[in-house]
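Quick one:
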Amino acid sequence: MCRVVRHYGVFFDPGVRSARIEAELARLVTRGNVSVDDMEALQDDSYTLYADDYLPLLDAAWAARATDPTLVDFRDRADLDALVTRLHGWDRRMERTSSEAVVFHAFMFFLADHVLRDDLSLLFQPILEAESAYVLKWLSGVMLRTGPHPDAALDGESREAALVRALDRTAQWLGARFPDGDYTWGELHGTIFTSLYGDRLSSAWAPTDGSCGTLNRADTVFFASADTPHERLDASDGSIYRMVATFRPDGTPQAYFTMGQGVSGDPESPHWDDLRADWIETHHRPLRFLREEVDAAPVETLVLMP
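Output:
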């Protein structure tokens, strides 16, 4: 599948999130009876459309090793074959419990490094650190080319060779980073909200779902420098809050929300970060609109005197 991307600006998303939203909304509308639960699940969606584009390419490249003379060194690599097999059974979701999410994420960025770093030179790392999605947008512009000369932008290397070499680098990195062979996305990837005013106003690091390009957005920078990935992938931003709204039969609004930390700006308050676990799990709480709902659920009362 080759996706048409409109380049409205330098650091804009390559279109995978909007494509996923449109596809899921169309599916839900066709099914009918769209519920609040459906919308909450959509906000938590960690499916990566990059897998839909790149895993078929990887399958074709791995199959080509049997006849491609440039891939002769990879023909008997059982470790690479095992990674391809694992990705076949993956649900393509960037979930904390997934080990395949680690494999795919590393593969994508080793591929981007292999294909783009020599062309972008000193600009590769600054662009990656500014917006990882833009690097992947350029990568798709090269790897998803169609027409009579699909490999024209690869400087004489076949697309299959680029994919298999990226897979090889992935296997080498996995062996060095996780020598026991046991790893999950949540072990590598998490979210931390940092503050310009020091650690006291920053959150603790926590494993989180999502990645670059998923609806549950959690962008990270894979490379610390050329050829050296970060030991841990820290997302420092994401949805400030998530909300789903509807109406009761009598027209009264109903809304459910979750936010990253809490409702207090005081680190000493119990409400400084008491909503954080809900945000990580995308567990929405009801907003109270009726007076009797508010009166029935007070936590603290603040009286302001003139």
